[in-house]
Every structure is written in C-alpha cells, then in structure tokens.
User: What shape does this take?
Amino acid sequence: MTGQTTKIRIEAPAKVNLYLRVVGRRSDGYHLLDSLVVFPAIGDTVEVEPADALALEVVGPFAAAVPPGDDNLVLRAARLLAERAECQPLAKVRLVKRLPVASGIGGGSADAAATLRALARLWEIPAAAVDMPAVALALGADVPMCLAGRPAFVSGIGEHLAPAPPLPSFSLLLANPGVAVATPAVFAGRRGPFSAPAAFSGSPPNARALASLLSERGNDLAASAEALAPEIAAVRAKLAAASDALIAQMSGSGATCFAVFASQGQAEAAWASLAALHPDWWLAAAPVAGSPRNG
Assistant: This one.
C-alpha cells in the first residue's frame, strides 16, 4: 500500500428518511426500522491526502459544532479502517462541514462513510481486503446506508439495505430551525405499538404519487421529536404550506424536515420565500441523487 500522491475528494451527501417506521426492538435496546432513504445533492465534503500522521481539519459553516478529539467519527473511521486493513493511519483529512449536526440527516455518518471511501483509495486497499459494510456498521447504524449512497429500503437497525424501485424525478427542500435533538431521547419518547413494515414494490410514476405513498407511511418519531422541540412542528407546517409542496415530513429523529417538490425550480422558489421569512433557519433545495436532475 504505497498510497497516492494526489488529494482525493469525496462528497458526503445528506441522508433523508422519506418515511420511517419503528417496527420492533432488539433485546439489546436497539430499535428495528423500516425506512426509505435517499441522498439529495447537498452535503459535506471530505478531502484526504498523504501525511506523516493522522490529522483532521474541519472548516465550513458548521465546523464549530463538530465534536473534537478522538471521539470524532471521521477519526474513528480512519483508525478502524487502518486497523482492519493492517496499515498505518497516515493521512490528513479535511472536512468541509455544511450540514447541521444532530439534525436527522446523517451528517456525521455521511462524513464517516466518505472518509472510508476516500482513505480506501488513498491507501490503495484492495476491494476484497476489507469488509467495508462491516466497518461502516461498527461505526454506527446509519453509516452502511451512507456508504452505499443510493436510494434504498433500510431494515434491521440500519444494516440491511434493499434497492428502492426506480423513483420519479423530484427535489427536496430541507429546513432545520437550528435546534438539536438527541436521538436516544427521541426514541425513548416514542409511544404506542410498533408499526408494520411498509416497503413498496412498484415504481411511483411521478412525484405526486411518491408523495402519496410517503404520506401513508409518515415518521413514527415525529411526535416524540416535536414534544422535545416544538420548533419542528412549526417548520413542518411552514414547509407543508409552501407553494407547490407535495408533502412535508421530518427526516430521521429530527430536527430537519423536508418538503417534496416535482421540480428543482419549485423547490428553489419555496427556499427563497422561506429564507426571507426565517433567516435563522438552515435551508437547502436540491435534487435527489439517483433521480434525473430537473431544469
């Protein structure tokens, strides 16, 4: 493993749960999920290059919120990959942090997945040498889906992925009110029976049909998250009321919510309206990775 001499850059797109159902709980306390995840074209960036030691630089609008030190998920990903590949963890990693932290869109998990992919190239690790999905799962339940980076139905605690059927062209408007909610607290506050899995097999013909399917499935964690942070309900209501919005729901355990639009132009128009009214919110409009880009 001689290593590359050039800088390697990997994008770390946000992970959005278009629907999320809690279908059970394991004996170790982990909840079992049923979800459809997609990856809009907005996210962080990971850059790696050769170095004499492992080092991390974090820049970008949310850099100050990234946990420092050895517990940082990017550094943990680098060390674990080096351990499994039996190589030295020598690299400089630069993280451009554009996604809010603790926001239900997999920012830290996406960063870890991008780090794994980038360092595997930098360190010239053969594809068969390391079980990358296993490394990803050891870092966190969301990391395997971010490593795959394609629309998928997710089950188990996040480790089981099944390809989603072809999805129609659509865009998302993401909105976060600037509050962080702790995932364990959201799960602890969930009430009621477990839901039945609801993955669908047919391909929705258009964005409106997709929105109808999502509306039937919802997010089982929304009520708990909104009880902890009432701002989430306000954000979701504002998104739902936006012109041309087909549906508005919360992603993951919150606090980020999203609205589905048939075109990128509609999503950007809604972004402009909400940005003027709520300059303190984080807002992003983007087409979904794997879907045709709208004009």
